[in-house]
Model the fold of this input.
Amino acid sequence: PHRSAVLAYTRSVTGAAGQRTYSAGVDHASLERWLYYPLHLVNDGLGSGTAALVVALAFLAAGARLVGGSTKVAAGVEPARPPSGGGALLATTALLSAVLVAVGQTAAESQYVMPHVPLILLGACLAVRSLPGRGVRRGAAVALGASIAVYAALAMRSFEHDAPGLRTGRIEWVSRYDFGLARSAREVGAAARPDAERWPLGDVVESVRARSEDGVVRIGVASHHHHPFVNGGNLRAEALRRGVPCTVTALAGLPKPTRAQVRDFLRDVDVMVLDRFRHQGFERGETRRLLDLLRDAGARVEEIAAFPVTARSDLRVLRLALDDDVEALVPPARALAPPTRPAEVRFEGGWTLRGVLRTDVEGAPAFVLYFDAAPGATAGLEAFVDGAHGGAVTAKARIPLEPGPTDGRLLRLDVDPLEGATEARLGLRVRGGGRRREDHARVESSDLPKVGSYQVLLTP
Done:
């Protein structure tokens, strides 16, 4: 299961949608992409001075090896030690992994290539070892150690002063070294002081547990809405520390999740923790769009706790619940009111299509379908909608049909946009089946155009 989860996450980041979301859509063939990590490794990974010294040592070591076998060694000068091959192996390992990282993602400055720093410094030590003359090697070692000490000291500055300076083009001789803390602390309005801000991880966990029917804390998260300190990972760690069962679920499909993805997310979570001051607040910007996305999918959003921490960080715990009426069952008078188009399509098995509402999302047809289930309607079926253009299927939607007490209401099914389709065909079949004719429910009567014996045309 872990292998599958890792591969699924990798595909979501490196795929077309992930490239737009996480890598800013930087083209794989562009110079910008292939210089992204080397520049950040120089600026805020190794440090520009150390990087320049490493390059110089590499050239000196290469020169020493080239001339070492063809020149006589002066009296009293210790010759260069023969290469062991370790440096070449380290260099090859670092280069291969750097290529894979660059192909997969360009993000987070030097964060994803920091594991290369020890390899590079080991290579630098091998270069020092191969230089001729004990004095030369000692001098090179002292210079390398001094440069590392300087940049380590710069990295220990207060986050208020951890900022780039002394630039030469795109090279920063003094850069920002504490990528995570400095940026995060500035974003939330933290201050460098002895009495640090108290981030209410425990308070959030307890406020959610107090309202949980089974004592489980179910937290929802969304990319680009993670708080630097009060986020899903830290909340789960705090819950585990307190012995509280906790799950963290991410909203799939961002930046444009389907309605089905949002509803699946809402079924698995109870709360989200959002900062009222981030992303232009709850009234506009990205946070408002996220909340509208949840509400449009049928969520009731209720604020259950507030934790103001700084002048720029006001945390709100939002309880999320699906409205049953919006989620599944709708009174006929409301379901079939305009602009819904009433229909009468009877399928075998006790299912009747009573209404079709079509919308268009960026040119792709989407539908809301209303079904009536007769007493004893067949269970284990799914509605399948095929979107087609010119006779070729361009998109598919599969939605389970769940018979049950409806109290005279209609079952609402939402069909996500069928990209590239100019027509849509509806049928019913055994869930997950469809290869055999007997898996399909025959259309017994229909006031919509029929497509064979098992489908009807939803589009005019």
Q: What stands out?
A: The two ends are 45 Å apart (CA to CA). The chain has a mean pLDDT of 85. The longest helix spans residues 31-68.
